Protein 1
Amino acid sequence: MNLAGKVAVVTGGSRGIGRAICIRLASMGALVYVNYVSRSSAAEETATLIQQVGGRVEIINFDVAESTAVQNSFKKIVSEAGSLDILVNNAGITRDGLMARMKEEDWDAVIDTNLKGAFLCSKAASREMMKKKWGRIVNISSVSGFAGNPGQTNYSAAKAGMIGLTKAMAREYASRNITVNSVAPGYIATEMTELLSEEVREQIKKEILLASFGKVEDVAGAVAYLVSDDGSYITGQTLHVNGGMYM
Ligand code: NDP
C-alpha cells in the first residue's frame, strides 16, 4: 500500500486515533498534515514520531468548525504542498449528558465540530481533488451513530449525520474519481474513552464480542485500506471497527 507523492490532511491528527492515522499514512509514504486546535505539544509529539521513522510531516493549527480558518488553511496546504489528495475527517469532541439536562451550547459544540467540521473540510479539500480528478475522503463516525447511546444525543446525531454526509458526497463526487467512505469505531482506548468511569468501561466490555477496547492502530488500518489502491472501488460505505459490539 504505497502513498508516495500523496498529500494527506488528518483533522484532529495530534493525538488518539488521529495520531495513529497520521503515523500510518506517513509510513505509507504520504506527506501528512497533522491538524490540531488547542494542544500544540501533542501535534509536535506526533510530528516527532513521524520524523523518527523517516516520514514527511507538517503541522497545521485550525478549528474545523471555523469556516474562514478552514478555507485559508486548505488554500495554504495546497499552495505549500502543491496538492491535496487525502482528507480524514477525524476531529471530534464529546459533551455528554442526558438530553433533559443537555445545554444547547453542548449540542451546538458537538454538531459544529463533529459534523459541520467534516462538511467544511470536505468542501475545501474537494476543490483541489476535483481539479486533479483523484481524491480519498474518510469520515470517522462512531458506533454511537448507528446504535444510539444514552447520554450522547448530540454525539450520536452528529455521527449518524456523518453517514448521510458520506453517502451523499460519494454520489456527488464519484464522477471525479473521489471516493468518500466512513470508518465507525466502537470503543477505542484514547483520552476520549478515559473520560468514562471504570464501572462504565467494564459494562461496555461485556457488550464487545472480542471482549476488549480496540487500539488506535485498528482504526488506522481501516483508514489505510480505504485510501490505498486496494480500496479504490469502495465508495459510500462504512467500515465498522468495533470488535463485534454492533453489527
Ligand atoms: P481525542 O479526544 O483523543 O482527540 C481528539 C482530537 O481532535 C485532538 O487532536 C483534538 O485536538 C482534535 N480536535 C478537537 N476539536 C477540534 C476542532 N474544533 N478542530 C480541530 N481539531 C479538533 O479523540 P479520539 O482519538 O478518541 O477520537 C478521534 C475521532 O474518533 C473522533 O471523531 C471521535 O468521535 C471518534 N471516535 C472515537 C472513539 C473512541 O472510542 N475513542 C469511538 C468512536 C469514534 P486538540 O488536542 O488540539 O484539542
Protein 2
Amino acid sequence: MSVTIVVGAQWGDEGKGKIVDFLTESADIVARYQGGHNAGHTVVINNEKYVLHLIPSGILHKDTVCVIGNGVVVEPAALLEEMTGLQKRGIRVSENLLLGKSAHLIMPYHLALDKASEKSKGKKCIGTTGRGIGPTYVDKMARTGIRVGDLLDPDIFREKVETNLKHINFLMKNLYHAPAFSAKKICQEYEEYGRRLKRHIADTDLIVNRAIAEGKNVLLEGAQGTLLDIDHGTYPYVTSSNSIAGGACTGLGIGPTKITGVIGVVKAYTTRVGSGPFPTEISDATGEQLRSRGGEFGATTGRPRRCGWLDVVILRHAAMINGLSGMAITKLDILDGLDTIKICTGYRYKGKLFETFPKEMEIIENCKPVYEEIRGWDTSTLGIKEFRKLPVQARAYIKRIEDLTGIKAHIISTGQKRDELIKIRTPF
Ligand code: GDP
Ligand code: IMO
Ligand code: MG
C-alpha cells in the first residue's frame, strides 16, 4: 500500500506527466488535487505524444481509476474536449474517470476576468495562462463559487449564476467596458455539460479514502510547482492554488497521516514560463540552446519557456516545504555535450549570502546567484536505463544534487519516452 504525492519542485513543467505515467504502472488510482487546465502534462508512448491538461496522467493505463479532486478548478468544455480527444485516439475514458462534486467550475466570466485583470496590470502582469484559474479560486474563497455538483440541479445552478452575474455584469460594464453575460445562455450551455458529465460526477473523497483503507496504491498528481504555490512560491507571480504536497490533502480530502511518500520532480536545469523573478535565468546562447534542445515551449500556451541553471536554493526550499522523500530528476539528456554545468548554491544580496529561499521579492529579483561549476560530459545519456551506464560526470552531477539537497534521486529520466528512464527505487 502506498499513497504517494508527485509534486513539481521548481516552476512547473518539470516532467511530472512523464513520471506520473511511469509510476501509474503500479497504481490503482491517480488523482489530481489542484490547478486546472492551466497545466500541460506531456506523456510520450512510443512515438505518440499526449498532453493532459485536466485529466490525470494515469489515464493512458486502461485499468487505472483517474480522479479529478475537489481542489481542482474545472472548465467543463475543456474537460469534455480533452475526453473526446483521448477517446478518438483509442484511450478509454468512461467509468475510469471520476469528477469530484465539490470541485469548482470555471465559468465564462472567470476567463473574461482573468484576461481583463492581466490587461489592466500592463507590464506588471503575471503572464497567466488566461484560463480563468485565478478568478475561479477567488470566487471559491469568497464563497460565491459554483461547484461541479451544482451541475446536477439546474434550479440551484441558475439561481447561483443569476446572483453572481449581478456583480459580474456591473464590473463588466463599469470597470472593464466589456459586454455583459447572459444567465440564460450560460445556464443552457452548462446544462448540456452537466448532462454529458453526469456519469463521471462522484463523491471522490469517499472513493479515494476507501481505496486507501483497502490498501491500494494511490498516486496524487500535482500540477504547477512549488514556486508557483500561492503561499510558498514567488508571490504574486504564482498560480492561485496550493500546488505543494500539502495541497494534496485539502484537494482530495485525505488526512496527512495517510501519505506515505512525496516525490519531487526536478528538471536537471530550471525553466519558468510567465513573469516573475528567476535568479539563475541564462540570457545568452546557452539559454537558447537549452530551450531549443529541451523543446522548452509551453505545453498549454506554446509560449517559450525561460531557461536557467539548476538552483539548489529552490530545491532545498522544495524539499522542506513538501517534505520530499525522493526526487525524480528529469531531462538529464538535455545537458549532454555541455563543457561545464553550473549549480546555484546560494544567492548574494548586498554582500550577504542567502542559502535558504528568501521571502522578499526584492532579494529574489536583485540577488546574484553563487555558482559552483562541474565538468560536463560529451557522450549521450539519451535513453540510458541503468545508473552505472551514465557517463561518470553525469553520475557526479546527480550525486552533487543529492548531497546539496539531502534528498536521494529515486528516478532519473533520460528522454521523453515512457521507458527512457533509470529506476532506482519506486514507491510501490
Ligand atoms: P509537466 O507539466 O511537469 O508534466 O511537464 P511538461 O510536459 O509541461 O514539460 C516537460 C517536457 O519535457 C515534455 O515535453 C516532456 O515530454 C519532456 N520530458 C520529460 N522528461 C524528459 C526527459 O528526461 N528528457 C527529455 N528530453 N524530455 C523529457
Ligand atoms: P504544469 O502543471 C508552468 C504559470 C503561468 C503564470 C502563472 C499563473 O504544466 O507544470 P495561471 O494561469 O495559473 O493563473 O498562471 O503560473 N503556470 C504554469 N507554468 N507550468 C504550469 O503547469 C503552469 N500553470 C500555470 O505561466 O506564470
Ligand atoms: Mg507542463
